[in-house]
Amino acid sequence: MWALDQAYAPRAERLLADTPVALLAWLAAGAAVVALLVEVSLLPASAFRVVVVTAGHGALLVTALAWARVGSTSRGIALALLAVAATASAIGRAGAVAYLGPVIWIGVLAARGQLAGLGLGTPVSLRALAAGACVGVGLSSHLLVSASRTLGVRAHVDHAAETLAWIAYDVGANVLAAECFFRGALFDRALRRWSFATATTVATAAYLARYLVDPLLPKSAELVAGAVFYLALLGVANCWLLTRSQSLVPGLLSALLFFAAYRTLGAR
Length: 268
Prior knowledge:
By secondary structure, this protein is mostly helical. The protein folds into two domains: 17-111, no CATH class; 124-263, no CATH class. The protein has ten helices and no strands. The chain has helices at 2-5, 21-39, 46-67, 72-91, 100-111, 126-151, 160-193, 196-212, 221-245, 249-263.
């Protein structure tokens, strides 16, 4: 009788449930081996960038897909496409076009209805897209003005091919993997357990940690402080965009606009 009188409250899913631990371990081990071989000059330095992109962004992307209950074959294809893109980009700047591969594959999965749990493949309004664009343009504008006044760095594109290659990397690896994992997967799970403020804090803190440990980013004190400030704002704004629109697309748009502006500063 007690069971009939009490409302059923399902147990909250563990925050890290369904994480592909074995695959992540293999990625970490492979990255460590390649880094060692590069250190002893048995592999070219470009191999380090390839493995960082593949293992780092690949770990985020496949974990997000696993949490969305996407099958192992589809996750493997996403990881392979990311590895191909990183390798092609290391061979030549024109190879950066291969970063369209992961984007197209994620689009295919979304069209099949497999990524609704990440906020992809669901309807998104023009108002939500406009909000995402406003966030991206607003942060980008502030970044460019602040960099010019405080660091004396002005927006410029001396080498268009290189800048476009970095933007392609953002589209198919950096922004795609980060938004799918930190907002579509981690924030969404945290929000089911805690308040918006707590879930946003957890997702944004993890987002900042990802960039602070990235060996491909500059480590000067000024740039690190700036990165923490702007990425924290971007992270909070994208959590809000996802909550309001129930779609990851506005956050993807805002992040892409922000990183496109960052690339014009020539920061590497």
